[in-house]
Amino acid sequence: MRKSAVTLTLLAALLGAGCGAGGGGAGRASDAAGGLAVRADGVAAALDAGQCDAALAEARALQADLVAADLEPAVRAEALAGAIRVVKGIVCAPPTTTTTTTVAATPAVRSANDDKKGKGRKGDDDDD
Q1: Burial class for 16, CB neighbours closer than 10 Å (0-12, 13-18, 19+)
Q2: Is the pTM of this model over 0.70?
Q3: CA–CA dist 74, 26 (Å, integer)
Q4: pLDDT per residue over 10-46, tens digit each?
Q5: For 92, which DSSP code?
Q6: Which residues touch 10 (CB under 8 Å, ≥6 apart)?
Q7: What's the rounded Cα separation, in Å, for the pair 29 and 9?
Q8: What tens digit of pLDDT does each residue of 62-91 get?
Q9: Three-class DSSP labels, 22-73
């Protein structure tokens, strides 16, 4: 998922949250929406930097914070729907694993004839 898609998805939901709050809660909801929008930009920036796991963790944290946010139920539902789409859209590649194989060295096997080095062989001129 590209940065612009993440940002637009969450911003649309969060702006709806800021605009949808009525009465005296409008300023508070707008402030909350602004803070959450900054975090949505952080998710997008992490994705652009190739930090998929960090982006996914922040998107999930943002989603959890939306659940706890003091918003009207309809606004919360809309914002959560956007956050869920973002979380589902972040697909990280599985970590690569490398396997190292170690081969144990086997000691050289010596035979009894190795110490004699040619003694007793025909054509050997060492006896002269």
Answers
A1: middle
A2: no
A3: 14
A4: 655 555 555 544 444 556 667 777 787 888 888 889 9
A5: P
A6: 36, 37, 40, 43, 62, 79, 82, 83, 86
A7: 18
A8: 899 888 887 788 888 888 888 898 899 888
A9: CHHHHHHHHHHHHHHHHHHHHHHHHHHCCCHHHHHHHHHHHHHHHHHCCCCH
